[in-house]
Amino acid sequence: MEDFAGGPFLLTTIVGAVVGFVAGMFGIGGGFLIVPILNIALGFPMQIAVGSAACQVLGPATTSVLARRVMAQDFRLPLIVTGGLLMGVFAGAAVLHRLMTPSADVEFASRTGEAIVLMIYLVLLLALGGFALWESGRVLAQRPVRTGWMAHWNLPPYAVMRGLPQPMSITILAWFGLFVGFVSGFLGISGGLLLLPGLIYLLGLAWHQAVTTSTLIVWLVAFQSTIAHSIHDHIRLPIVLGLLLGGTVGARMGVDWSRGLSAAHGRKSFAWLALGTAAMIGVKLVLY
Fold first, then answer.
1. pLDDT value for 3
2. 246 with 57: CB under 8 angstroms?
3. Is pTM beyond 0.85 here?
């Protein structure tokens, strides 16, 4: 299905609307949903699914940024991690391209590369979904998990940022951005899947502030990923347009819905979404 002419444009539009809603509600890019759906349900090659998913995030991410009340201080943390994000995104896209480059046995190389990417998705989603479900349960039981695990690491220089009770190490933020960028470039998830729990538990941001910051960083990652994957010819514009058409509308609805969602229930909903996606990937791997 790599040739999209006459393909399921309506289906990709519906997928885009659903994922855009999720992106707006949780402040994530939604690639962790789009990539498995494009690859497993619609049959697109993994590198095309990853590149097109990363590119289309620009639509709902831009809508989410414009829909939120963003202050000038909210840009401080995203701009600090931009350098690490940029290096990580280009490195991740290059590794994916290398992994999916056909060998003497084209079919074997393609299936092996796809299986590796899906297995990484499975492990990542199970870990994050399981942790979010456990953590939200503790919050609802009034036994919250301590946040800000890395906030006290003393690695100068430091920067003062909105939402953090004390100055944060720029070095830690740069490495955090590099890791998120690499995973984003490799998997096409635009970082939101890692950013939200990372900003809350590692850096100590409150839920709603973390969602705003995550939305801004997701936009930066999507912009960088679009350039990186276009270099390797991983993007198909018809797929992107179908996803954007639905995703831009869905993102606005998701932002409006998130305003009435409590932090604990928001993380619980995110957990079940991640675990459900992991289950779909697990079925695919069993059938390989």
1. 47
2. no
3. no
